[in-house]
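User: I'm curious whether this sequence folds into something compact or stays loose and floppy. Could you predict its structure so I can see for myself?
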Amino acid sequence: MKIKTPEPFTFEAGKRAVLLLHGFTGHSADVRMLGRFLQKKGYTCHAPIYRGHGAPPEELIKYDTDDWWEDVQKALHHLRILGYDEIAVAGLSLGGVMGLKLAYSEPIMGVTPMCAPMFFDNTSQLSKGFQQFAREYKQLEEKDHDLIKDEVRQLMENSTHTFEKLGEFITDVHDHIDEIYTPTFVVQAGKDEMINPESANYIHNEVETDEKQIKWYEDSTHVITLSNEKEQLYEDIYQFLETLDWTY
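Assistant: Here's the prediction. I'll summarize afterward.
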């Protein structure tokens, strides 16, 4: 079975722009419905795909957070080249961590981290998530059970560097959260099976901005943008964006 390669998207609307960032092992489809929702509300949305993502897992582990951070910076630059001066960011999981880093290193209007990890205390969950992603991808390729088992084992042996860099990146952003003065809306799934949900409280407590809020979605899982309460989430993000001090 041929797997369709996902692509970045840019949904143009008004002069206000939102950069949408997917998570580790994810891709643009994870934020596509949110992008369409915000476009209908007048917001231009752009979502990149980080190198190695939306591709076989062997491709993903050729890269690490240095590459993906560069991809996020290029995506922000892409919006600026298109003429958007005021940009907010919403990111899922690792995308949320990237968004927080943007919030203390670039002039952005507001940031919405969704289920963003701040503690690298659950490597087993992250590696289990990567294993599951690899297994499911290979099942879609219609490989046989024994070959999948062997290839996934090799992948896990070869992915140590990727996970080390992931841990370093998360820890570095954790240590700079108190440099964020950008309006912040922290989103957390109540049934998050991937990250330590205390991350949400940490972000909310430690950002320096007075313009901050936090909301828990009790019936949602980690990929909250596609979970049970997604419509409410989209509306809440829109309402947060409406509170920002846009020029236009």
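Summary: The first strand starts at residue 9 and ends at 11. Residues 50 and 71 are 6 Å apart (CA to CA).
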